[in-house]
Amino acid sequence: MNDDLGFDPENPLRRLLARVVAETRETGGTTGCPALSERVLEAMAAVPRHRFVPAAQRDWAYADMPLPIGRGQTISQPFIVALMTELLELEPDAVVLEIGTGSGYQTAVLARLARWVYSVERIPELAETAADRLRELGYGNVTIRAADGGQGWEEHAPFDAVIVTAAAADIPPALVRHLKPGGRLVVPVGPAGHTQDLRLLRKDAQGMVHGRSVLPVVFVPLVRDGE
Ligand code: SAH
Q1: b vs e for 8-27, b when ≥16 Cβ sit within 10 Å of the residue's Cβ?
Q2: Would residue 3 count as lying in a domain?
Q3: Ligand 1 proximal residues by C-beta, below 6 Å
Q4: Ligand 1 center–CA 99 separation, angstroms
Q5: For residues 140, 143, 145 and 149, what is the CA-based torsion angle, rounded to 10 degrees?
Q6: Of 49, 57, 73, 120, which is best to mutate to test ligand 1, by the most ligand atoms within 8 angstroms of its C-beta?
Q7: In angstroms, what is the span from residue 17 Cα to ligand 1's centroid?
């Protein structure tokens, strides 16, 4: 474990990061990702999660659990946010597409690591709140739009990385199409209301797609237009 992030009962953020580091290590045999990079840890340490949760949930903002954010949606568990971010292997010049902005918490973590984050949220109120919040916090490299993210975002494609933070019954083909050769896509795949399979896909230099299972996870469903 990184000593700088050791257990400190006085500091809820440090305690949370120590928990995330421990959980990453404990699940490493399954996920193939036993440790987080310094860059991802620094990004996790720099995002004030309490600013992304409703006032009624503030006491739990630094607990390693998902929390309700209204409209039946949730802010993701910090360990899962860290893991999914790590799997994207973002370089500082990366351009990322995120589907499921929700609170904007994962968006903020991505924005600290990439050049630009395009994020799509189908519930307009959530998209607006997240955009306001990210602007207030000084994130100037994020563009959010209210739409069905299953269509991808043609105008800004192709992306170095695509992250989906809602469970898809099937991987929307547009998201694979909008990935650069060498790009990575992280997406929970499976039925709503059950455990899903977090999957990591890579598009190789020839455009062939290779995928693997990472971890069982539970996400709210990706709702497609017309459903
Ligand atoms: N990363 C978010 C998690 C939000 S939960 C956070 O940490 O706060 C998943 C979000 O996906 C919800 O806000 C939900 O409204 C959104 N969503 C569901 N289906 C979608 C779709 N087809 N396109 C875009 N967003 C969608």
Answers
A1: eeeebbbbbbbbbbebbeeb
A2: no
A3: 73-76, 99-100, 102-103, 105-106, 120-123, 126, 148-150, 165-166, 220, 222-224
A4: 6
A5: -140
A6: 73
A7: 24
Burial of 149 per CB tally in 10 Å (0-12, 13-18, 19+): buried
Q: 136: CA distance to ligand 1 center in Å?
A: 21
Beta bridge partners of 199: 187, 213
Model pTM above 0.90? yes
CATH for 40: 3.40.50.150
Q: What is the pLDDT along the chain (227 residues), one digit of tens a residue?
A: 444 554 444 589 999 999 999 999 999 999 999 999 999 999 999 999 999 999 999 999 999 999 999 999 999 999 999 999 999 999 999 999 999 999 999 999 999 999 999 999 999 999 999 999 999 999 999 999 999 999 999 999 999 999 999 999 999 999 999 999 999 999 999 998 889 999 999 999 999 999 999 999 999 999 988 66
Please give the residue range of the domain that contains residue 35: 12-217
95 is a domain residue: yes
Q: Which of 85, 99, 110 to mutate to test the pocket of ligand 1 (most atoms within 8 A of CB)?
A: 99
Q: What is the bridge-based pairing of β-strands 179-189 and 159-164? A: parallel
